[in-house]
């Protein structure tokens, strides 16, 4: 699965967010570090979503392929 990320250079290094996952962001001293950190943040974000869905027995989860 691919996610778009927004990488911004700052005085402290780099901040990076994933617009498709609200609130999912990270940072790093270098660009590679920031990208690795957002990869971990996305994995943790998705794992949390899965955990929350287990607590919603009436919810139906479906996957969609979207061509852009």
Q: What does this protein structure show overall?
A:
- The protein has one domain.
- With 68 residues, it is α+β, with helices and mostly antiparallel strands.
- The chain is built from one helix and three strands; from the N terminus they run βββα.
- Strands 1-2-3 form a three-stranded antiparallel beta sheet, with helices on one face.
- The chain is 35% helix and 21% strand.
Primary descriptors:
21% strand; 3-stranded antiparallel beta sheet; alpha+beta; single chain; 1 helix; 68 residues
Short description:
With 68 residues, the protein is α+β, with helices and mostly antiparallel strands.
Layout of strands and helices, then pairs:
Layout (H helix, E strand, L loop, with lengths): L5 E5 L2 E5 L7 E4 L2 H24 L14
Antiparallel strand pairs: 1-2, 2-3
Count of separate DSSP helical elements: 1
Strand order of the largest sheet: 1-2-3
Order of helices and strands: EEEH
How helix-rich are the residues, as a percent range?
Answer: 25-40%
The secondary structure category is alpha+beta
Mean pLDDT metric:
91
Q: In percent terms, what proportion of residues is strand?
A: 15-25%
* End-to-end separation: 13 Å
**Tally of DSSP β-strands:** 3
Domains (count):
1
Q: In terms of per-residue confidence, which ranges show pLDDT below 50 for 5 or more consecutive residues? A: none
Q: Choose one word for the global shape.
A: elongated
For the sheet with most strands, the description reads: 3 strands, antiparallel
The Cα radius of gyration reads 14 Å
